TrEMBL record:
It comes from the Eukaryota. This is IPIL1 protein.
Amino acid sequence: SWSVFEDKILYQLLVFLQPPPRHSFRLELYSAMHLAERCSNIRVVQECTCSRMMMGDMPCFPHRPDNNQMVQSSPLLCTLCTGSYLDVEEIACWVQNLVQSAWEHLPQWHDWQLTVLPSARSCRVLLTGPSEVQLCAVLVFAVQQGSP
């Protein structure tokens, strides 16, 4: 959606996160004992593909060759998760850094100034262009329930 707010054009974008290959997202609802401000957790699960293998007894990505135990060390888990759960603050920080580093590779970077605004749970950027036109974009992260 978009709107005008304090002489700025505000864009709000819903960004659906998709798990990488061999991973899935699992929604786990909190019980009444947990914090009220968070109603769910998204657990990242590394999927076993051993049963789909055609040749030999080579284990799949999440299994150790020595004892066939599940491993929790994929790059996704190390970068965007706390434990086995997606961490929206880590995701926001990662996307903010990605946007900032990619900005100089776009042809518009000479004419527009990018400012990453502080935000712990979304990615907020302010673009200031010619004639002091300002655009604010807010990327809000979501996981679609029932997606693979």
